[in-house]
Amino acid sequence: MIGSRVVNRIRAPLIRQSRDETSLWSNCKLRGERFPTLNVVIANAGISRTEDMTSDTWNVSSSVDMIQTNIVGVISTVAAFLPVLKAQRNATIMATSSALAFLPRADFATYCASKAFLHSWLTSLRHQLRKLPIEVLELSPPYVRTELTGLSQAADPRAMPLASYICEVMSMLENGQHPRGELLLERDQARRWAERDGTFDSIFAAMNPA
Description:
Blueprint: H1 21-34, E1 40-43, H2 61-86, E2 91-96, H3 109-128, E3 134-139, H4 151-154, H5 162-174, E4 182-183, H6 189-192, H7 194-197, H8 200-207
Parallel strand pairs: 1-2, 2-3, 3-4
Helix pairs in contact: 1-2, 2-3
């Protein structure tokens, strides 16, 4: 279940981190044709890398990779599956953003910006699909013990255990606790509303020491 929606359980992995949107589009389209009753799509695309733009060796290639995967990958996946989802009695699109979408780590500049883009884009997508029975959810995890930035993150005691995060997200889904379609932990609400609450500068300074 996603909220009150029945999920058609189909395992249909896509091309990982495809830089070729034509290949990604074709792959997604084929999956949609193969599974015409598919009613849930989870776009979980992400590359996260530090960037030092003061360095003489910094170049744009790393930024391009993150934009291609984190932004173009998600948009291409949603676009390819949308015709199938529109044909269902109810459907869900979920995409993985980040708590860093709302207040960035400066050393992960492009990564944070790509997630901020997704937050804005999903808000617009949700509004455009408001008259259709398609739920649009934004999953915004905190710093979790995964290998997103490398093996060290998976063992970092400062990171939230993955199992704990999954339990909290499943509870929110089962209880419909995702206002505005946002799946965000209580601990991250301060970052989510930092600009509204006038705390953006102080939290940013704490996250990005001089």
